[in-house]
Write a structure and sequence with these properties.
This protein has 562 residues and is an all-alpha fold. The chain contains 27 helices and 2 strands. Helix 13 packs parallel to helix 14, helix 19 packs antiparallel against helix 22 and helix 19 packs parallel to helix 27.
Amino acid sequence: MDSTTLYDAEIVEFPIKPKRIERPRKIKSVTFLTLFKRWMWIILLISSVAQCIFFGTADNIFAIVSVLLGWWLTEVYLLRTFIVHKYSLSALLIFGYAFTQYCLPLIFTITEGKPLVYNLKFPYQVFFHSIAAFLILIAAHWVYANWYTHAGGLRKQIQLVMIKYKFFTPPSDTQIWIMGFIGLIAILAKHAAFGGGEAEGMNSEQGGAASKFLEGFIPFMYAPFFIMMKSMYMKSSPRISKTLMYKMAFFTIALIAVGMLANSRGTFMKGITSLGITYLLGLLLGKFSYKIFKVKYIILGGAAMWIVTGPLADLGTAMVVVRGLRSTVSGSELFYQTLETYNNKAALEHYKKVTLENEFSSDWNEHYFDNIFLARFCNLKYNDASLEQSNKIGRIDPMIQQNSIDRFWSILPQPVLSALQINIDKKEVSASSFGDYLFMRAGGGSALGGFRTGHFAGTGMAAFGWWYLLLLGIGIIPLYFFLDLFVIWKKRGNLKKYRTYISLAGLTPITSYFMFLSLSSYSESVINIYTFLLRGCIQSLILYWLILYLSKKISYVLKVIL
């Protein structure tokens, strides 16, 4: 059979091969997650090279390698689409640890002209413990993720109860504003009734149950910020109006003012970080456009960075300068003194200089960053200071171990302790931090009440030896499960795309989850993970339901009146 019979439609003298059907090219979708991983590596490698050029000591190079290893582990295991969507809040906890312990210190120490191991007496131990703990966190999450797959029924049953009690029903904007003002009133009431500063607020039982009750409402003062990011907790995402922006500006000023009245830097710092962390999580989830690298966004980002590291950092310093007056003057006078100190730049510089000199001459030194905001956000010196005291002790201390166990039980109400016949003086136990007790046992004298910030590596070694890593791994698995109860996700067909929504109850304390193991009251000891599981989990659910109920009733009353 010749070619003309094969292709009789055309007069040809040679066979014609049928045209090759080209398959459509598979276009790789660009996501923020992809861009984020790429740019983080670029920034980290540039910072690493700069560190090696200017500070090429053996301990600094070891620290740099540890950071790069930690970030590689983060990318390989954590920064994957299905992990970020299915386990949003548990992944955020691990990501927060990696970001504040590895990335930010490497990047910002070089911008301050310092080595990564600046002022660390035991840099090898700091980064060895950091990597060991990080491996435990990832291994525990792998175990949890496999168990989570088989425990879907349990998760669904609990989430059905949460749905019944409106945990996943988006509150109205009015309700959210009411939540914010309840939080502001709570911090003012707590300060007026019981006094105390930031450290006492985190670590003490000052004021008893009433103080703790008020303290539980404080995180809700950041709720209004989430109105600008509705797509995180609801399907629709209305356009942000100018009116809303004006309201947010007014509320932010009120937040800063309340922080000054209560002499609490964390009041406005946590508000800013809550906004930033939620926006970053939203970008990773694909909730917001990844095309943020535009001129206007870069200018806005630069302006925000300047405000945070400049004026707000100075305001935080001014609040620390006048902190000694908080027990002797009124809130309004404290506000005035803070403003006066803020405007006196010479006084601020003098305070920084004197404080730095005093820190370096002290047996307990927490200085790592010059910037007060960074010092509160990613300070490796807490790890170093705790390991230093643990090394002085040189063994498992039975008294520190017992103190850690007593702190765990002290979270229970006194009637429960009495019923269980547990004899603990709750006021005595909570009158100091883990760092204080560790420092005292290491020969620091009468150090209780100073609320030094301990770290779980040093306090863990002193109380349990290397077994603290096992306690970390066991305790963190139920914590992962609890956090992800606030996450509802659904796979879209056969595509590798997800729709993920996070309850507002899980978003309001997002800064605490992000910094859970890096810088919070829970990062002082692995025991505090169990403390949170014992009381914090149930308390957070009850308080959210209560404030949701109150805001709904108040909203209804306002609607009737107005």
